[in-house]
Specification:
By secondary structure, this protein is mainly alpha-helical. The chain has eleven helices and two strands; from the N terminus they run ααααααβααααβα. It has a two-stranded antiparallel sheet with strand order 1-2. The longest helix has 29 residues. The relative contact order is 0.13.
Length: 332
Amino acid sequence: MPKLTRAEAVRAVRNPLAFIADHWTPQDRTVRRAALSAVVMSVVIVVTGGAVRLTSSGLGCPTWPKCSDQSLTATSEMGFHSAIEFSNRMLTYVLCAAVGWAIIAARSAKPWRRSVTRLGWAQFWIVMGNAVLGGIVVLVGLNPYTVAAHFLLSTTLITVAVLTWQRIREGDEAPRPLVGKAVVQLTWLLVVAAGALIAVGTVVSGAGRHAGDSSEVERIPVDWSMIAQLHADFAWVVVALTAALWFVLKAVDAPVGPLHRARDLFLILLGQGVIGYVQYFTHTPEILVGLHMFGATLVWIGVLRVLLSLRERPVTGAGIPAQSEDAALTAV
């Protein structure tokens, strides 16, 4: 390992990301894979969080940030539920590592694109905020409103992670639309409907039987069958809008990118719908609820990919020299 001068050592301590960028230039595929790893982990943390609730392990660690008043970690005496809850907490560090890897790779790419790095930092702060919110969820005894907020903030993380992954694969020029304004408006309507679908889904969970712990846990005081029916209605609206969008894209002879993304979303929705109806008529077995949560993340990613496919950003050779932007990075 090469020896560092005093000046280099000081610089490495003051601005480690700039120091790494000066000594390492990742390949484009490395940067893309780093961004994709953050997307994958943002989905994994949602699924494992669902597993905590579905195994009634939400209060397996009854306090936060320690697992119990006597121990920072789960112990064998605390049992199965504490191991599940603590394992999910540890996965937050894996998520942080994935996001950190994406930030380092984006910062070290040549030329440095500050907009992409900022998206990476946005992911980091969302993770930190959601970790604190997760602690609040435990401290208030799995209050369903905080649980819903926890899931919605995780969906925000997925949104920023997907946007980062997309931005890494395109340039910094102004976006150029590939379809007409009417198609864009229809797609935004689809985005709003999908967002409402996910929000209502959190109410369904908050009013349902999977409270997250075997003890008495507060539930959202609404009729579960009624809110589940409203959730299904929104699902059909999203399906109809997706089908309409695909037909419109075909009619206007849109590029294959938007067509393929709309087709993919439609297939995801079909699978999610089947799982949703089966779990409803079989009284929400845990395995199907978990699959439905995973499907919800795929639906949202599919919607985002449809929206992002409607424009392109050409790649140019212009960029920001990394060595001239150290102060800006420190500010970020």
